[in-house]
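Lecture notes, continued. The same structure-token format from the folding unit now serves as the input rather than the output. Read the line below as a description of shape only.
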């Protein structure tokens, strides 16, 4: 993997000023969450820094790059090409920054849709993207921020609920991975709570 300072310089060149500030905010939040949940801090920093590396591409360019990287583009991504910035960003980072850590790459790949049974690093990048200090765009965000440090799974469910509600209100398409993501979190929380009850 390329050195952190090199990656940071390249990310600054790839993104507009606001998106770069956001990426630094996600990095800051991911580090704090990594400390809270015992995840490798260097992985948190790298995944957070690169998560939006292809976000400033136009829709047609994202589709072209997705085809170049042989990503299987589904019909929902065709309708909403910005959903591809995670998958394209992951494969771009693998090539450009020589990142071969699958956990880092998956955290970038799925940071927009989520997926079933995400690793803790994936969860951290997903929620850090939403709660970083520069974000202030929907009701209930402060509650999610607080919950993220108490129980990250419950914070993720709250976030998924907000996202799905937002999409439904606008009569847009919901990606199946987002549904799988929410369902897996609910099952995980239920399983944990059952074990906790048995231990008493």
């Amino acid at each position: 993997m390329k050195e952190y300072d090199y990656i940071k310089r390249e990310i600054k060149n790839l993104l507009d000023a606001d998106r770069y500030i956001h990426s630094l905010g996600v990095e800051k939040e991911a580090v704090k969450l990594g400390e809270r949940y015992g995840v490798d801090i260097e992985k948190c920093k790298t995944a957070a820094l690169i998560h939006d590396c292809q976000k400033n591409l136009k829709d047609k360019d994202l589709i072209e790059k997705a085809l170049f990287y042989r990503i299987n583009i589904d019909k929902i991504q065709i309708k909403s090409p910005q959903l591809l910035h995670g998958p394209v960003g992951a494969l771009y980072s693998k090539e450009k920054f020589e990142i071969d850590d699958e956990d880092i790459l998956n955290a970038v790949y799925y940071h927009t849709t989520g997926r079933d049974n995400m690793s803790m690093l994936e969860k951290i990048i997903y929620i850090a993207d939403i709660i970083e200090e520069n974000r202030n765009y929907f009701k209930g965000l402060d509650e999610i921020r607080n919950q993220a440090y108490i129980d990250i799974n419950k914070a993720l469910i709250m976030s998924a609920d907000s996202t799905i509600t937002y999409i439904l209100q606008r009569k847009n398409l919901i990606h199946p991975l987002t549904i799988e993501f929410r369902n897996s979190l609910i099952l995980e929380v239920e399983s944990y709570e059952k074990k906790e009850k048995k231990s008493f």
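Point for the exam: The radius of gyration is 17 Å.
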